[in-house]
Design brief:
single chain, Membrane-bound Lytic Murein Transglycosylase D, Chain A, Glucose Permease (Domain IIA), 7-stranded antiparallel β-sheet, 19% helix, 19% strand, flat
């Protein structure tokens, strides 16, 4: 006979318990995800309904109302109708277009004022200085340093040649001389050419747009006296005969004035030097060691002038001085005061006209000044 055993707690398989807990946990995560999703959807729906009212409230000034047509909302959305509190400015449609004042076809007259230069005048009219020079060769036949206050200049409408037609001129020949085509001349609107019967009469002034004229070296005359020794002297009452050198240059050139800026003309084909800012009475310095070969008045438009021969093939010229501080045939050292800034000769304002020459030919000072 089997003896009954006392009741024991039923033993559970551990693997079954683990799976049960995992399933319960997964159900809990799923329920939580659905709950969060519902919260997000409700939040977005609330924002969608709330935002239009807030936008309208922000856009509308205090006291204004958001109304649609007939006092209601247009298509369910509020419409803001601003209240005009100031007088509005209305512009009528105008189909007419004005041509820029800078575009012109006529030649105008300009009266030279104090302090003017070809460079400054040309810049004022948006032209190259050459174009102003070529249009006024009859007045400036000795160069741009012959510009004087009160002089009347012709200002062309565009860059090129302002030309007076001669009796026997031929269109092809004139165009070729100034490196343009006949059409460049005929089609320039300012020449007002009848294309059915093109031609010009003697005495007509025409514009040759883009034309290039002859460059002239308008400089004070130089008389070479040999490769060595005093290589150059100026013609004029300030010149002197120099048999040898008192001081020899270093082939380095310092600025001859306290300023290092241009006050008038720069160096170009029509102006063989630079116009350096120098006030009336400002000291002017020798750019390098050398021997003075010109000191005094020059009748060719340069006024009081000093020229120094540096004994190396180089010479320098200083013009429009108010006073000369050295004598001809004496030696000067680099940096020595040789004169004072002025506006003598053909000058429209105080400045220093400065040139560097090598064996008689001019050199752009910008390439040598230190």
């Amino acid at each position: 006979m089997r003896v009954p055993q006392p009741n024991k707690k039923e033993q559970v398989d551990p693997s079954v318990e683990t799976r049960t807990n995992s399933a319960a946990k997964q159900r809990w995560v799923t329920q939580l995800s659905w709950l969060l999703t519902a919260i997000v959807i409700i939040g977005l729906a609330s924002i969608a309904l709330w935002m239009p009212e807030q936008v309208g409230a922000i856009s509308a000034p205090a006291g204004d109302e958001m109304q649609g047509n007939n006092g209601g909302a247009l298509g369910g959305l509020p419409v803001y109708e601003p209240q005009v509190t100031a007088e509005a400015i209305f512009r009528n449609t105008d189909n007419h277009t004005d041509i820029s004042a800078e575009y012109r076809t006529d030649v105008i007259e300009y009266v030279v004022d104090s302090g003017d230069s070809i460079f400054r005048i040309a810049k004022q009219f948006n032209l190259k200085p050459e174009s102003v020079l070529w249009a006024n060769e009859d007045s400036l036949f000795m160069g741009v340093d012959y510009l004087s206050v009160g002089m009347n200049l012709k200002i062309p409408p565009t860059d090129g040649i302002y030309y007076e037609w001669k009796e026997n001129d031929q269109l092809d020949a004139v165009a070729g001389k100034y490196n343009v085509t006949p059409d460049d001349i005929l089609l320039w609107v300012g020449n007002d050419v009848d294309l059915t019967n093109p031609g010009f009469s003697a005495g007509d002034y025409i514009m040759i747009p883009g034309g290039v004229g002859e460059y002239k070296q308008w400089v004070v005359p130089v008389i070479p006296t040999g490769k060595n020794g005093a290589v150059a002297t100026l013609s004029g009452p300030g010149a002197c005969s120099v048999m040898g050198y008192v001081l020899i240059g270093t082939n380095t050139f310092i600025w001859p004035a306290g300023n290092r800026s241009i006050s008038g003309n720069d160096y170009w084909e029509g102006h063989q030097g630079i116009d350096i800012s120098a006030g009336l009475g400002a000291p002017i310095y020798a750019a390098d060691n050398g021997t003075v070969v010109y000191a005094g008045w020059n009748p060719n438009g340069y006024g009081n002038t000093v020229m120094i021969d540096h004994g190396t093939g180089y010479s320098t010229l200083y013009a429009h001085l108010s006073a000369v501080n050295v004598a001809c045939a004496v030696g000067v050292a680099q940096g020595q005061v040789i004169g004072y800034g002025g506006s003598t000769g053909n000058s429209t304002g105080p400045h220093l006209h400065f040139e560097i020459r090598y064996q008689g030919g001019t050199i752009n000072p910008w390439t040598l000044l230190e």
